[in-house]
Amino acid sequence: MNGVLIIDKPSGLTSHDVVNRARRILGERSIGHLGTLDPMATGILPLVVGSYTRLAQFYLNSEKKYEGTVRFGFSTDTYDAEGEATSEAKEVALHREAAETLAAKFRGVIEQHPPPFSAKKIKGVPAYKLARKHNEVVLKPVQVEIKELEIVSVEGDRLRFRARVGSGTYMRSVAHDMGRDMGCGAHLESLRRTAVAEFTLDEAVALDDLARQAGNCPIDSGADLFFHPRKLLPHFPSVAADEQTAARIRDGRPVNLPELSRARQVKVFSGQRNLIAIATRVAGSLFHAKIVLSAS
Asked: How far from 25 is each of 12, 15, 38, 131, 216, CA to CA, in Å?
């Protein structure tokens, strides 16, 4: 079974929990995810199944979209609603104009400190493991890009937002830093991821629905539940390979492919849905498979 499955993650599960449940439902051991989502958060969690786990390398710097709520008045140790309060609660009444001025500070390329409860490593140890033991966690700031940050509404002590961000951006840190700048503390009350790269909620399936469908009949990678392989990596052109060319690709030999563009990398298909390789241009129309995804 090879493919990409878009899960609408429920709150309360870790990304690894989702992977484990999908393994049991599909009866497939080789499953990974494209970008960790916090347990509290919901939304898009793309799963790569079978040989498609090799595609993960192309999604390391994927853009993501979110919508959520920041609550002002106190901060927490996890920077979200699941943590312990780290500041005294204050009465806060936000105003739209002040919220817009605040949001403007976080748009563009900024320096951001990752949350202490995160998977960032300190001398090989994940920061969250140190934080759980109440050890001091000092993480170096990293450069991230917040491409869009829209204030949807402001009501009382809560600010609803939509955001489009580059890889490595923590919306928990954005919420925490907003509270710091306002002088009243804040934390991320809710978060929903609405897109990762080309994957959106329109193609997502709930874990419970996946389990029900699997209970009714065996699921294979040709099922409608799976993201259509032609829509993967849309910035790579698609080329078709005949049987002889496909055999050479699987044997690891360079091949001549139609020059649809001067793209450095292309998706190679045998048939409509059978993605057999991602190939890299050597010279002219000569390509060599960077990864092979299909053995037959």
From this structure: 19, 15, 22, 34, 12
pLDDT value at 58 more than 80: yes
Catalytic residue check, 77: no
**pLDDT at residue 263, rounded to an integer:** 84
Q: Which of 8, 38, 157, 177 is catalytic?
A: 38
| The CATH number, out of the four listed (2.30.130.10, 2.160.10.10, 3.40.50.720, 3.30.300.30), of the domain defined by the range 232-292 | 2.30.130.10
Whole-angstrom distance, CA of residue 12 vs CA of residue 18: 10
Range with the lowest mean pLDDT among 34-43, 71-80, 223-232?
223-232
pTM: 0.90
Alpha-carbon distance 215 to 134, whole Å? 44
**Cα(39)–Cα(42) distance, rounded to whole angstroms?**
8
CB neighbours of residue 162 within 10 Å: 15
Handedness of CA 32, 36, 40, 45 (dihedral sign): negative
Task: State how far the Cα of 267 lies from the Cα of 159, in Å rounded to an integer.
Answer: 42
pLDDT band at 132 (very low <50, low <70, confident <90, very high): confident
How many residues are present in the chain? 296
Q: Where are the beta strands (DSSP E) in 107-141?
A: 108-112, 121-122, 125-126
Q: Thinking of the domain 64-195, which architecture would CATH place it in? A: 2-Layer Sandwich (3.30)
Q: Report whether pLDDT(222) > 60.
A: no
DSSP annotation of 173:
H
**Does 236 have pLDDT greater than 90?**
yes
DSSP summary character for residue 51: G
CA dist list (Å): 160 to 67, 82, 109: 7, 18, 21
46 three-class SS: strand
**What pLDDT is attached to residue 213?**
84
Q: What is the pLDDT of residue 284?
A: 85
